[in-house]
Design goal:
This protein is mostly helical and about 90 residues long. The chain has helices at about 5-15, 20-30, 35-55, 60-80. It has a domain at about 35-80.
Length: about 90
């Protein structure tokens, strides 16, 4: 296995870790511990990385950025659609 293949696999694995958080939010039907601002920034950040991978014809960047974008986009949808259980402070 070459270093490029190894780093590609690591990029895809690390970009896929957000799906564990999606599962946790969906299972608990709670997102009170997630920051909307951070989730929004991560969504845009991963979209730009996917676009950058596309523009320089880098399949690893395109795939890992797209996986991360899809995951953070789903997390944002869950954040916007699941009712908050927080009855005190409103976190952003």
């Amino acid at each position: 296995m070459t270093l490029t293949n190894f780093m590609t696999a690591l990029a895809i694995i690390s970009s896929s870790l957000i799906y564990l958080q999606i599962y946790k939010v969906y299972q608990r039907q709670s997102h009170d511990d997630l920051s909307f601002v951070l989730t929004a920034f991560q969504t845009f950040n991963s979209a730009f990385w996917a676009y950058y991978g596309y523009t320089i014809n880098s399949i690893p960047l395109l795939v890992s950025g797209s996986l991360a974008f899809l995951g953070f986009f789903i997390l944002m949808i869950l954040k916007l659609t699941i009712k908050s259980h927080n009855h005190g402070w409103k976190y952003i």
